[in-house]
Amino acid sequence: MELDINKLLKILKLSAQIIIENGGETYRAEETIKYICKSFKVKEIEPIATPTGLYFTISVNGEENNTIVKRIRKRTINLQKINEVNNTSRNLTSGQITLDEALLQLEDIYGNDKIQYKYSLLYGGISSAFFTLLFGGGLFEFTVALFSGIIVTIISGKFEELQSYQFFSSIIAGAFLSFIAITFTHLLGKGNYNYIIVGGIMPLLPGLAMTNAIRDTIRGDLLSGITRATEALLIASSLAAGAGAIIYTAYALGIS
Question: What local confidence, expressed as pLDDT, does residue 20 receive?
């Protein structure tokens, strides 16, 4: 049966796009393209993936070239989607599913942006609360951090739906976190807001982005490594700026 080039190109584009947009490494996106192409006896494969763009050229017969350029505009963390793309690509390369079935699965993965959203709220609160305990907080700080973590997760989700720049969402998240911590400790006259703020910021820090930046740099993907490192530093700085602005205001007003 003759290979449908258009369907193959769509599958390659969607696979790599989902991986990059959901926190996957750039080399993983490139290798996924290569593995799928090799399983269909594609003679020439040249993929280039960065955190902000995807480019690849394939030639099935070694004569005619087909090129795809895809701009990556949003980036988040959803390891479940990456795992599902890996499963689909493995099933496709092993012949367990057809191109049509793989395309349908990838479109479903890409379009499902509400995967376990209600659980992410709970996880955001719990992680903030236990980080607060880890840094020395007590039961009061644990409770406030749980509440503030849920609120900040909701705020971050709303900004993501609006496709806002992560710089602004991080500033607002840091500011809200500090505001809630200082307000509760001041009004109730107990607890230490420092534990709440530090514990609440920890889940928001771009640890995965920095890890991927180091891995990409070590592998020789310098452009991707520099881009991810810059993004991680920008997010961390904006979180600190948002939290610092509220703390400074509280000091100026004599609240803390």
Answer: 92
Specify the range with the lowest mean pLDDT, choosing from 92-101, 115-124, 246-255: 115-124
Q: Residue 70 forms beta bridges with which residues?
A: 54
Determine the pLDDT at residue 155. Answer: 82
pLDDT at residue 2 greater than cutoff 70: no
- In whole angstroms, give the CA distance from residue 31 to residue 25: 10
Rounded to an integer, what distance in angstroms lies between the CA atom of residue 207 and that of residue 53? 21
Distance, CA of 87 to CA of 91 (rounded, Å):
6
- Concatenating the DSSP letter of every residue in 49-85 gives EETTEEEEEEESSSSS-EEEEEE-------HHHHHHH
What pLDDT shows up at residue 169?
83
What is the length of the chain? Answer: 256
**Rounded CA separation 105/11 (Å):** 10
- DSSP 3-state assignment of 44? strand
| Vertex 162: Cα angle to 9 and 114 (nearest 5) | 65
DSSP three-state, residue 256: coil
Give the pLDDT mean for 44-60: 90
Task: Report the chain's terminal Cα–Cα distance, integer Å.
Answer: 73
Residue with tokens 């236990």: 130
**pLDDT, tens only, 129-171:** 999 998 888 899 999 999 998 888 888 777 776 666 677 888 8
